[in-house]
Every structure is written in C-alpha cells, then in structure tokens.
Amino acid sequence: MKFFVDSADLDQILELNAIGLVDGVTTNPSIIAKSGRDFKDVIAEICKEIKGPVSAEVVSTDSEHMIAEGRELRKIASNVCVKLPLTLDGLKACSTLSREEIPTNVTLCFSPNQALLAAKCGATFISPFIGRLDDISLDGIDLIEDIRTIYDNYGYETEILAASIRNVNHVKDCALIGADVITAPPSVIKSLANHVLTHKGLEAFLKDWKGTGQSIL
To answer: Using CA atoms, how far apart are residues 21 and 100, in angstroms rounded to an integer?
Structure first.
C-alpha cells in the first residue's frame, strides 16, 4: 500500500519522507488556504522534494476551465497530478487530460457508481472519502470494498486512493480490503506506530538494561 500525506506543511512532509513513509502528497484548496501562501509556490516546493505524485486541485467548476487549469498546474512539475471533482464536468476534464497523458485524481467520490465513471474516463486515482461518509452514519469502508470489487471485476487500472482518513482503524481496514493508496494527515500516519504494549515493553527493557550498568557505545 502506498502512503500519501494529506498536507501542505513541507516540514511535516519531509519528516515522514526521511523515514520512508511518503509515496506522494495530496493537497486541496482548503489545505493550501490554511498555509496562507501562494498556491503554485507551495506545490512547486513539495514537488521538488517528493518524487511521487503531488495532487493539485483545480478550482473551476466547468470543464473548459478545469482543463485549462489542469494544463497550467501540470507545468509546475512533472509529478503534479491534477485533482478534479467528481461531477460531469470533472469527468469530461478527466477524459481530456487523461488522453493528453496528464495524471488525474478524481476526488469527492461517495458512491461506487461515481468510481465506475471515473475509471471509464481514465482517472489515474479515485479518491473515495471514508470519514465524511462515517459522519452521516454510513460506512465509508464499505465504499472502498465495493470499488475494489468493481475495479477487479473489469480490470480497471485506476488506483483506489482512500481519503478522509480519520484514524488508524481506517488505515488497517483499507489495507485489508486492498486499497492501493491511503492519504492521511501526518498525525494519523505517525500514530500507526503507537501501541501501549510497545511502549510498556520498551520501558521494561530499558529499566532492566540500566540495572546492568553496561553501555553499548
């Protein structure tokens, strides 16, 4: 499974990248707005440091301007992946950009039918939102499972990029189902390493070692 970091904070991205936990980055207009910085500058900085796909989202709602924005975003760096909303206009833009061999990430997916359409339009990634479905008392993990089944049935190459990851159980469930990618905030990715028994065990080992009076270095 690939790990994408859902953030525009370069320091946090680089911290995880140094560990080997970054296969790509996702951003959106909300994340960029919180940074208070120029959109293109932020994307360019991330692309320079990260080799994998970096999703940069269009902000237009009609296909003509989405396509124009997508082409412009792609000029920033060769690893920019154009993020498009899952609307009919977004799908039209996805088809056009895909034919131009510009990678796309179709976002705000909330149903298997939407995911099917994105795959037929040549999307590189489909981003189903788990947490937002959970928020309205639906099971977001069920959506990932349905998309996996549909894509496997017909051999679609679109990668399932599980988004709106809120906790470590979301990550585990996505891995069990076979999502190709998860994108999560740095805090969630870091928390995957945490377990109370690991910490308790380490404390016991260190206590016993200290009692020997020895040193490795």
So the answer is: 30
| Tens-place pLDDT, residues 32-48 | 898 889 999 999 999 99
193: Cβ–Cβ under 8 A, 6 or more apart, which residues? none
For 142-154, the DSSP string reads: HHHHHHHHHHHHH
Distance CA 130, CA 77 (A): 29
Task: Assign domain 2-212 to its CATH architecture.
Answer: Alpha-Beta Barrel (3.20)
Q: Which residues are catalytic?
A: 83
Maximum Cα–Cα distance across the chain:
71
Q: pLDDT-derived band of residue 164, with 50, 70 and 90 as boundaries?
A: very high
pLDDT at 192 over 90: yes
- Averaged pLDDT score across all residues of the chain: 97
Domain limits of the chain?
2-212
Which amino acid is residue 3, in one-letter code? F
> Parallel, antiparallel, or unpaired for β 54-57 and 159-162?
unpaired
